[in-house]
Design brief:
Layout lengths: L6 E10 L8 E12 L5 E12 L5 H16 L5 H12 L1 E2 L4 E2 L3 E8 L4 H13 L1 H12 L6 H10 L11
Antiparallel strand pairs: 1-2, 2-3, 3-6, 4-5
Helix pairs in contact: 1-4
Length: 168
């Protein structure tokens, strides 16, 4: 309540919105927070996640994406993937649309055990899984042909499409 609360925060966050609608959007964010409480004790935690939003779902791509994230989680704790996948599914559910934003991924927050080093290594493994989970999908679909119809659908799904020529 009085004075300052010394803290430190670091993170990396990225959203990639490809132009080609057959290449899915990916979002990832990994972060670390640290603060010193009024008692002088240091408090810290990690958070983050990675999720995928395809505009045209490809089951093989979805399996590859989730398999890569699961492998990163399983290196550290076999309970992480199912727990953090469920958290992601709930976190990215859009109630007003009645649907999920994409095909999910993993999401976690307030991770502060078993140790700071182990939590860091887990967050790093998850961040390191972004490229192998995503780049193969980009390479596979970057040259897929599309037209105005597919591009319009992509923009609608991203919530960025506005039709200015409406006739009432």
């Amino acid at each position: 309540p009085e004075g300052s609360l010394p803290f430190f925060a670091a993170g990396v966050s990225c959203v990639i919105h490809p132009r080609n609608p057959y290449v899915p959007t990916i979002h990832y964010n990994y972060r670390y927070f640290e603060l010193q409480g009024p008692d002088g004790k240091k408090y810290w935690w990690f958070g983050g996640g990675t999720d995928l939003t395809p505009y045209y779902y490809n089951e093989e791509d979805g399996k590859h994406f989730h398999k890569t994230l699961k492998a990163a989680c399983d290196e550290h704790d076999k309970k992480y993937y199912p727990k953090f996948k469920e958290w992601c599914d709930k976190y990215f559910y859009i109630p007003y649309r009645g649907e999920a934003r994409g095909i999910g991924g993993i999401f976690f927050d307030d991770l502060d055990s078993p140790s700071q080093e182990e939590c860091f290594n887990f967050a790093k493994a998850c961040a390191d899984s972004v490229i192998p989970s995503y780049v193969p999908l980009v390479k596979k679909h970057k040259n897929d042909k599309y037209g105005d119809r597919e591009r319009t659908w992509q923009l609608i799904r991203r919530g960025r499409y506005v039709e200015f020529n409406l006739v009432y």
